Amino acid sequence: MSTEKIADEIKFAYWVPNVSGGLVTSDIEQRTSWDYEYNVRLAQTAENNGFEYALSQVRYEASYGAEFQHESTSFSLALLLATQRLKLIAAIHPGLWHPAVLAKFGATADILSNGRFAINVVSGWFKDEFTHLGEPWLEHDERYRRSAEFLQVIRKIWTEDNVDFRGDFYRIHDFTLKPKPLNTPERPNPELFQGGNSTAARNNGGRFSDWYFSNGKDFDGVTEQLDDLRAVAQAHEREVRFGLNGFIIARDTEAEARDTLREIVEKANRPAVEGFRSAVQQAGNSTGNKTGMWADSSFEDLVQYNDGFRTQLIGTPEQVAERIVAYKRLGVDLILGGFLHFQEEIEYFGERVLPLVRELEAAQPSTVG
């Protein structure tokens, strides 16, 4: 099954460093900070350098290099109020949020930001975050069943009155939210992102979300996920957009970019990476067909904890731009970028890489067969 279309223009997001430790679990220098002042400057830089979205991470306690964490929804709202155009995607966990409570927060954040709030529903991979808070840790597919209900409930609350919902995880009785978030022809409700790799994640994405986020993948991995996702979406008469994680190392020469990758891996914090590996690979392998996130990730892949090196956005500006557009041809709508030195590298990307992407896009046909 071929992809249906090429995105009009591929969009770009960046990982908000609202947790300490940077985006690679390595002792290499990372010129970044998790504090608010740094993040305000970074968000303003990003929106002025072609980035349309930013994703705030969700961590509730120290884990694998992330000793300190700012909460994702409140931090996203703070950044929305410090920017003009950037859309903030707050990662959240069903099971730790009730969908109606989050819907209320989200409506307020959306109105205050003139329609720039979004959420990324994370079904959960870190068992300790639930058990340490006294919450049940569900089996993998049950976590995704809960997320499916969460997505349905929050969309209904944001768009309907007198909501009733009878599920296995959530019961809503004649509930009306006022005020609701902004409703426009382009976006009837705050955008709903949902990530994962497993069959359960793809089913949720195809049936209930607006966007599907994938961990880092090569061309074959992206094609396989897109085919499954769009088959589910078509069966339910829906369209879902696709976002791909990628760690971006754009340098003046390919040798410099490859040397940077080599140094990151050589200086990996091995105990932290191995700890993360043992925590997440059991989650991926717990799915029936072992297609969950991180199920087949190598040690090197996990140094960037969302498999960002696999996307191979590493090289000169020309090489990175060409690979981005190749992903676009497959049907990728958004690149979620991570960086070693956020502020300066987002500026470099906006000045050196993004114009080449737009040139290559303009030279390509708008559809594929």
Keywords for this structure?
369 residues, alpha/beta, TIM Barrel, 8-stranded parallel beta barrel, two-stranded antiparallel sheet, 11 strands, globular
In short:
This protein is of the alpha/beta class and 369 residues long. The chain has twelve helices and eleven strands.
Fold and architecture overview:
- This protein is α/β, with parallel strands linked by helices and 369 residues long.
- 43% of the residues lie in helices and 15% in strands.
- The protein has one domain: TIM Barrel (Alpha-Beta Barrel), CATH 3.20.20.30.
- The strands form two sheets. The chain has an eight-stranded parallel beta barrel, surrounded by nine helices.
- Helix 6 links the parallel strand 7 and strand 8.
- The chain starts with 10 loop residues before the first strand and ends in a 7-residue tail after the last helix.
3D shape? globular
**What is the CA–CA distance across the termini?**
10 Å
Which CATH first-tier class would you pick? Alpha Beta
User: Can you give the helix content as a percent range?
Assistant: 40-55%
Q: Total strand count, please?
A: 11
- Tell me about the biggest sheet? 8 strands, parallel, barrel
Order of helices and strands: EHEHEHEHHEEEHEHEHHHEHEH
Strand order of the largest sheet: 1-2-3-4-7-8-9-11
Low-confidence stretches: 1-6
What would you report as the Rg, rounded to the nearest angstrom? 19 Å
- Which whole number gives the mean pLDDT? 92
The count of helical stretches stands at 12
GO biological process, one term: alkanesulfonate catabolic process
Keywords: Flavoprotein, FMN, Monooxygenase, Oxidoreductase
Domain Luciferase-like: 11-333
Protein name: Dimethyl sulfone monooxygenase SfnG
